[in-house]
Design goal:
Elements (H helix, E strand, L loop, with lengths): L2 H18 L5 H8 L3 H25 L5 H21 L3 H28 L6 H30 L1 H22 L18 H8 L3 H22 L1 H9 L6 H22 L4 H22 L3 H29 L6 H26 L6 H30 L10
Helix pairs in contact: 1-5, 1-6, 1-7, 2-3, 3-5, 3-14, 4-5, 4-7, 5-6, 5-14, 6-7, 6-11, 6-13, 9-13, 9-14, 9-15, 10-11, 11-13, 12-13, 12-15, 13-14, 14-15
């Protein structure tokens, strides 16, 4: 893998840390800015909305830019709004910086996915994707606990400064190593200058691509439904002390890091077996965890296993989006990012609705199992439809199985 991909992964690590670190900083922010905890919580919602809106929109707007210019613009904007967030004393300004940071994050990740897959061999998209998504998993393992520790030692603003500083090496790496050709051009396999916005939008209508995006949203929804409510589960059901919650969250993050590595090794050559076996194992794992959450040993083992399975399946689905979107090299990454964030927003909402209904702290796990079951059912229906299409006539190149 080209070294610049690891620098892009560092930028994704900084962005993932920024996205998740507020969970440990909200009380400090609320006290410092003299706002309610619920108002501070809106900072997280603003970031989620920005990610969903920003991924396809900014990927589309950046298609006429060079890859280097797009990556630099998004990353420098991300860096600067964190500096502004670190120095502001106004809640409205901080809220605006979170939304803008999410837009920049979404645009960067969309272009970075296209860039990464363009810099490797055509059959190595899964490994390139895993390098970038490994930054997100490392944010769960190290970035979020480190942000919480910085907030404890020097206040919440120090975590924002740290995110800005972590982005600097990637800025230098992009300047030095990323080619300056058009963002949509390198990953396009056909002749000419590339498909353009309308051509990429047409390519996104592929049924195979639409199904893969839906599967990504469902699997990520299941992942973040369980992850969001993991802390009350292990304290109130498993009986683990609150002081161990960061370690349990890091255990899930460590599993996710292992899963992304596994997905990167297999996504290019054995994607279908990994998705089938991993999806079935995910459904079984969420069900077993819901049933055995009162047992500390079983709960801890399954937290690690489910983290690994969730991200192995999720990262493989992202790579399959990029394979299916060969005619939409830039917007494919943007829509993949949007789909993951739709899942990250819907999953916790569904889990919260189950808790509000009084179904107990195990209920988000059952919601995760249901979302995974829906993903498997959708995959089964799509596979059956594809087989019928093959029986009655050869499918198009876009809709052919991977």
């Amino acid at each position: 893998m080209p070294f610049v991909l690891h620098l892009l992964g560092l930028a994704v690590f900084a962005q993932g840390t920024s996205e998740f670190m507020l969970s440990g900083l909200l009380p400090d922010i609320a006290r410092d800015l003299h706002i309610s905890l619920s108002a501070a919580g809106s900072l997280t919602s603003a970031f989620a909305v920005g990610m969903v809106i920003g991924a396809p929109l900014l990927a589309m707007l950046s298609m006429r830019w060079s890859r280097r210019r797009a990556l630099l613009a998004f990353l420098v904007a991300f860096l600067l709004v964190h500096v502004l967030g670190a120095v502001t004393t106004h809640y409205g300004v901080l809220l605006a910086t979170r939304f803008v940071a999410a837009l920049a994050n979404a645009g960067f990740l969309a272009v970075a996915l296209a860039t990464a897959t363009a810099m490797v061999a055509p059959d190595a998209k899964g490994r390139a994707t895993s390098v970038l998504l490994g930054g997100t998993t490392m944010a769960c393992v190290a970035g979020v606990p480190a942000g919480a520790l910085l907030g404890e030692l020097w206040g919440w603003r120090s975590a924002f400064w740290a995110v800005a500083l972590m982005s600097l090496p990637a800025v230098l790496g992009i300047l030095r190593s990323v080619p300056a050709d058009r963002a949509g051009q390198p990953a396009y396999a056909g002749p000419g200058p590339g498909p353009g916005v309308r051509g990429e939008l047409r390519a996104l209508r592929s049924p195979r691509l639409v199904v893969t995006l839906l599967l990504g949203a469902l699997v990520n929804g299941a992942t973040f439904c369980a992850f969001t409510y993991l802390a009350p589960l292990v304290t109130d059901v498993t009986g683990i002390g609150t002081g161990w919650v960061p370690a349990v969250l890091a255990l899930f993050g460590l599993g996710s890091f292992v899963g992304v590595g596994l997905g990167g090794r297999l996504a290019d050559t054995r994607a279908v077996p990994l998705l089938v076996a991993g999806g079935a194992a995910l459904l079984l794992g969420w069900t077993v965890l819901a049933l055995t959450a009162g047992n500390p040993v079983a709960a801890l083992v399954l937290v690690f296993v489910q983290g690994a399975l969730s991200f192995a399946v999720g990262s493989t689905l992202v790579s399959q989006v990029l394979y299916a979107a060969n005619g939409a090299p830039t917007l494919g990454g943007g829509f993949a990012t949007a789909a993951l964030n739709v899942g990250a927003a819907i999953g916790p909402w569904c889990g919260g609705a189950a808790l509000t209904a009084g179904l107990g702290f195990r209920s988000p796990l059952w919601v995760s199992a249901l979302l995974t079951a829906l993903a498997l059912a959708l995959a089964g229906v799509a596979h059956g439809a594809r087989r019928r299409t093959v029986r009655h006539g050869a499918p198009s190149a876009q809709d052919a199985p991977a």
